[in-house]
Amino acid sequence: MSNAMDAKLENHDAAILLEQAARLDAADPLARYRALFIGTDTNLSYLDGNSLGRPLKRTPRDISTFIEEGWGGRLIRGWDEEWLDLPQAIGDQLGRAVLGAAPGQTVIADSTTVVLYKLIRAALATVADPARAEIVLDTDNFPTDRYLVEGIAREEGLTLRWIEADPASGVSVEQVRDATGPATAVVLLSHVAYRSGFLADLPGITEAAHSAGALVVWDLCHSAGSVELDLDGADVDFAAGCTYKYLNGGPGSPAFAYVNRRHLPGLQQPIWGWMGRKDAFEMAAGYEAAPGIRSFLSGTPAIFGMLAIRGTLDLIEEAGMAAIREKSLKLTAYAVQLYEAWLAPTGVELASPRDPALRGSHITLDHPAFRNVTAALWEQDVIPDFRAPHGIRVGLSPLSTSFAELFRGMAAIRDQLHR
User: Fold this and answer.
1) Whole-model pTM?
2) Which CATH number applies to 3-56+321-417: 3.30.200.210, 3.40.190.10, 3.90.1150.10, 3.10.560.10?
3) Which of the residues 12, 157, 201, 369 has the least number of beta carbons within 10 Å of its own beta carbon?
4) pLDDT at 10
5) Segment holding 217, helix H or strand E
6) pLDDT at position 72
7) Would you please indicate which residues are annotated as catalytic (active-site) residues?
8) Are 309 and 243 contacting, i.e. CB atoms less than 8 angstroms apart?
9) Backbone φ and ψ of 130, nearest 5°
């Protein structure tokens, strides 16, 4: 077949795929939310919402109002009037809108790393059985999770039991059953694998760990805001997640902690600070933990870092997580369709599950050229992210990503590979 004929067929296929993107956008019940985010009126293709979400247009106004009226107008009175309550108030909204958690179990606290450290140590203290001296985790979990557990095991003289995870899929219920037993204290896993996007069976794995007498700490960084959750329904013990991905809190916005209400009485978390003490402003000698989820706090709340989260939570409550998940499924399915049409013939491999129900809201594509390709794409205002050794992650935030935007980004990847 001639080169001219090849080009004609490629252009015809591209036109069909572009028309499909237009139809999907026209039928999208969440399409109107896209205009509420900064930068969506440009031709930039942002495929990294799973790493850092776009800011809402209301966020500058919210922050400006806080500076002028809250901080500037109320000054230190703001702590008594509202700010001290924000970690729990926003935590309850997050629990209601995103996590499937009843009030009083979620709080906005520190960075994800610090929150996970607190949760793992609290889980170990809850188990409090010398015979249970093993922590189960997987080899492909996010680095901070693995590093934390290695450090805790060294501190506490515990043993690590590693599940060998397939980077293209993830940890299964069967693997957890095989790895847990009378010696298991805690299981730490990510709900959505940061590399492949694999969606773990959260209820099934939680039940498997409980059957072995262990507790589970879930990392929800890549699922909160893009995947439906029912932490209470699944009887999850502990969970943590960041707020700067699908929750659009901004760089370094504080993480959240979920603690099942049955673990709150007598909760022992290791970083005692004045904000987690009973009557913080008493300034008395000795530490007495505050009742409930507030005991999970340590230092002064990061108020600025919480402001942007509320805007996204308002949108999520309006749109509903079921609709958000439905769009996520359609976005990743369309991404895979574009991959198969354009990228698979060039040797690119799909490093994510093919079944949409087994994916979060991103897919990963592998090719030896992708490190350099990613750098070139960024110069063109096409922004996926690169994950070593040779993966591009295509992250799709349902409230702010359009199908046409995805089409443009995938077409740019194709064009780079043809250079």
Assistant:
1) 0.96
2) 3.90.1150.10
3) 157
4) 64
5) strand 215-219
6) 98
7) 142, 219, 244-245, 393
8) yes
9) -55, -25
